[in-house]
Amino acid sequence: MKKQILKSIMPLLAVVIAGTSYALMSFSVSNKTEELHWFVKDESSGIYVDYGVSDVPPTSCEELPGDICAKGFNPSKPIPIEVNDDTTADENLFRQPL
């Protein structure tokens, strides 16, 4: 009887351990911030300037009023030759209202 119980519990225990390990690994991966290639809009010229790749969005334009101040692109995808207001980005950073 004892052997039968152990044979029944062992596969269940293995599934629980595997499921817990998978859940914990998924949790740590989901907390990663995605790095993006950022372009920040220069207000005087209206041209988007290359800010580089970073997992933290640029903060240089958050205090100015207006619309989009930066565009982020996934660095593993081709970056557009020209970045402007109409370019579709993976993430748009909007200015914070005053």
Structure report:
With 98 residues, this protein is α+β, with helices and mostly antiparallel strands. The protein has two domains: 32 residues; 59 residues, no CATH class. It is rod-shaped. The mean pLDDT is 77.
List keywords for this structure.
98 residues, alpha+beta, 4-stranded antiparallel beta sheet, 1 helix
Rg, please? Answer: 24 Å
Major sheet attributes: 4 strands, antiparallel
How would you name the oligomeric state of the polypeptide chains in this document? Answer: single chain
Low-confidence stretches: none
Indicate the topology.
Elements: H1 2-30, E1 36-41, E2 48-54, E3 68-73, E4 91-94
Antiparallel strand pairs: 1-2, 1-3, 3-4
Produce a short descriptive summary.
With 98 residues, the chain is an alpha+beta fold. The chain is built from one helix and four strands. The relative contact order is 0.16.
